[in-house]
Amino acid sequence: MSARESCLALIMWSCRITGYGDPDNLESPDPVAPSASEEQRTWERGGDPTLIIETAARPAMLAIAGGKGGCGKTTTALGLAAALARTGGDSPLVADADTEMPDLHVVAEIPRSPGLDALAGSAGVRDVAHRTRMTGVRAVPAAGIDTAEISTALHRLGAWEGSTLLDCPAGAARDAARPLRAADRSLLVTTPTEQCLRDTVKTAAMARALDAPPVGVVLSRTSGGPDDAVAGAVRSLFDCPVLARVPSTGDRPLRAANVRSAHDRLAKKINERNL
């Protein structure tokens, strides 16, 4: 059995075991999120009644989530942010929500502090938003924040005037739940491998339970051209569309032209969903 056939077999089996999607209907239409004008919802941030922000007036907070470490979440978060800045005139902010294994500061090439720890104290969002080498993109490092304070810091990110992308811890444990609680929606990142797909199913279930339903899936580290059968099966497994296929590349994926093109297409689809 080829790797592609193994991937499809796993996805179809998982659909039936987990109940996600309908494996016999792989051509379901892509759902499009309602616009803010259609969904006038008010969110209370951090349990503080003074921090009430209306969805219509505030850009969305999107959690970049996945089942396994190394699946491409940080690369996706930064690549999508850069594409949003290029294609949509946005001023995106990427924040590292992984307190156990933070690496956003390394990939974004920014100082390790100040970061979320300062934001949980007296600092404002602009005080901790570091400029990156990507035009228009700012980033906030985790900076050794105590787990007891991370929820406060994540909610305060809502004051940023542009889109906010949260680079989440992998998996479905308590540390991964915190940024999902702060986010409005999630974007799932997975490689087309058996273990990563299995683990990301659990992450997707947790995201829905915490009211941050997935807007779509990014298949990272792919090889070859588009495969409609795999994309349809993944859509059925996660009950949301595949928004991008990001090809495998070298040690610096964010500098690769084909990865940049994939992120531009992803940004276009995110913008079409009014996020």
What does this structure look like?
- The chain is of the alpha/beta class.
- The chain has one domain (31-272): Rossmann fold, CATH 3.40.50.
- It is 38% helix and 16% strand.
- The protein contains 10 helices and 10 strands.
- Strands 5-6-4-7-3-8-9-10 form an 8-stranded mixed beta sheet, sandwiched between helices. A two-stranded antiparallel sheet has the order 1-2.
- α1 (3-18) runs parallel beside α8 (194-209) and α6 (150-156) runs parallel beside α7.
- The radius of gyration is 18 Å and the shape is globular.
- The model is unreliable at 17-58 (pLDDT under 50).
Low-confidence stretches: 17-58
Helix content: 25-40%
CATH topology: Rossmann fold
The SS-based structural class is alpha/beta
Largest sheet geometry: 8 strands, mixed
Overall outline: globular
Number of structural domains: 1
The fraction of residues assigned to DSSP E strands is: 15-25%
